[in-house]
Design brief:
The chain has helices at residues 6-20, 30-37, 41-53, 78-86, 89-92, 110-126, 129-136, and strands at 57-60, 66-69. It is mainly alpha-helical and 138 residues long. Helix 2 (30-37) packs across helix 3 (41-53). The two termini are 28 Å apart.
């Protein structure tokens, strides 16, 4: 079972694709992204809209329009994207999905998960789209 939701995974992949095309075209058409990633255009549009609302992407309607990064790829971390697409659950939910999981010691997994979770957030915050793009093409 993946740690991240399908929306997060597809959003990361879409941002990577947009970043890789940055030099060739200012905007990438949503239909082109959907086709290349083999995703439903409707599903992808919802993801891209969330990223646009959060100022990670910018959009332009009409001919030559589509979506583009709102900031340079070296200024967009994976954590920026995940916070938008995964929401608050990324930072506070119980690993096991228990509704009454607290830091009071009642859950045997909580303290260990909190430490691992903090490390994951540091990892995601430290990787930018630029770095991810360079590693993917090397």
């Amino acid at each position: 079972m993946p740690l991240l939701s399908k929306s997060c995974i597809h959003g990361l992949r879409a941002c990577m694709l947009i970043a890789s095309r940055r030099e060739h075209a200012a905007f990438v058409a949503t239909r082109d992204i959907a086709s290349e990633l083999q995703l439903s255009p409707c599903f992808l549009t919802k993801i891209l809209r969330s990223l646009t609302t959060a100022d990670i992407l910018t959009s332009l309607r009409g001919p030559g329009g589509g979506v583009a990064l709102a900031r340079p790829p070296e200024q967009v971390s994976l954590l920026d994207i995940l916070r938008v697409l995964h929401g608050p659950a990324l930072t506070r939910d119980c690993l096991l999905g228990l509704p009454q999981c607290h830091d009071d010691g009642t859950c045997p997994v909580r303290s260990r998960w909190a430490k691992a979770h903090a490390e994951l957030q540091t990892l995601f915050a430290g990787v930018t789209l630029q770095e991810w793009m360079l590693r993917a093409h090397s």
